[in-house]
Amino acid sequence: MAYQTIERGSPNTLDYRIYFKGPQGPVSPFHDIPLFANPENKTFNMVVEVPRWTNAKMEIATKEKLNPIKQDVKKGKLRYVANCFPHKGYIWNYGALPQTWEDPNCKDESTQCMGDNDPIDVCEIGHRVKRRGEVVQVKVLGTLALIDEGETDWKLIAVDVEDPMAKEMDDIQDVEKKFPGLLTATVEWFKIYKMPDGKPPNTFAFNDEAKDREFAHKIIEETHTHWKALINKTVQNTKGLAIANVSVEGSPEKLSAADAQAAVDASPELKPAEKIDSATIDKWYFIDLKNKSVL
After folding, report:
1. CA dihedral 238, 241, 244, 247 (to 10 degrees)
2. 234: Cβ–Cβ under 8 A, 6 or more apart, which residues?
3. Which of 33, 49, 135, 172 is disulfide-compatible with 98, CB 3.0–4.6 A?
4. Which tens digits make up the pLDDT trace of 39-55?
5. What is the Cα–Cα distance from 32 to 246, expressed in whole angstroms?
6. Nearest 5°: CA angle at 32, between 146 and 55?
7. For the whole model, what pTM was predicted?
8. pLDDT in tens, 74-123
């Protein structure tokens, strides 16, 4: 199914939003886009939040009705990830799998840490830079287990099924064969990306090693099960997440198409983008990971 995006508000401001639209009207990228693109082939739909090489930390707004994409905010200001040498912005297309949830009420058996209250994250490693809000069919090759400020934050490694290299990669060991150095760079990126903000380096479970495709599929299934409990409100605590949707039968907050459209119409109309401080966003940071310092 093809999805369109609807921009609202002014880009580079606090009110900018990207809503999603299906054939019948607005949908939630969190709840209405199916997890599986092809269940038999185990391919998944990925919602692209951040195109490769960009810095704006865009994310599905899990606590807003219909869950549009918005830019993360820290201390009242729009958030941009720092350029930690030699990395420029995000080094893959970054996004999430719909209809998944890392439940903060549950301790993960593998990491012994609670979930981070978000859909499961995806690093898409293909050649093409995606569009913000694009829905891409991906093959999941494996996963890393980031421990981000004490919470489990799985990072799936995936490739667009239409990528020229997709047929040559079926599991995590193929990533190093075809894209040597990318997994090492990915671990480093996640360890250091918050250090320019004054935070300590992140850590990974499993001694920084990526787990294979079979393990990753198991984690996806677990987070899909958690999402089912969330959308049906059978979970102990929904943690303030917005579960309005237009397609999940039996969900207590299922909306009509008219109500979904009204939610989009209530947001600010699209206006020209505000200027950004490119000099600050493009700044290099040099990280001494051994001594946990920023130079």
Report:
1. -70
2. none
3. 33
4. 999 999 999 999 999 99
5. 7
6. 45
7. 0.97
8. 999 999 999 999 999 999 999 999 999 999 999 999 999 999 999 999 99
Q: Give the up-direction half-sphere exposure of residue 242: CA atoms within 13 A in the CB hemisphere.
A: 19
- Collapsing DSSP to helix, strand or coil, 213 comes out as helix
Inter-residue contact 128 to 153 (CB < 8 Å): no
3-state secondary structure (DSSP) of residue 151: strand
For the residues of 19-65, what is the DSSP string, one character each? EEEETTEEE-TTTTS-SEEETTTTEEEEEEEE-TT--B-EEE-TTST
- In this structure, the number of other CB atoms found within 10 A of the CB of residue 285 comes to 16
Place of tokens 């999805």: 3
Which residue type sits at 161? V
Q: Among 212, 216, 219, which residue's Cα sits nearest to residue 172?
A: 212
> CA 26, 62, 226, 159 torsion: positive or negative?
positive
- Tell me the Ramachandran region of residue 127: left when phi exceeds 0, alpha when psi lies from -120 to 50, beta otherwise: alpha
* Dihedral sign computed on CA atoms, order 136, 49, 127, 222: negative
Tokens 């984690």 belong to residue: 219
φ/ψ bin of 263: left (φ > 0), alpha (ψ from -120 to 50), beta (otherwise): alpha
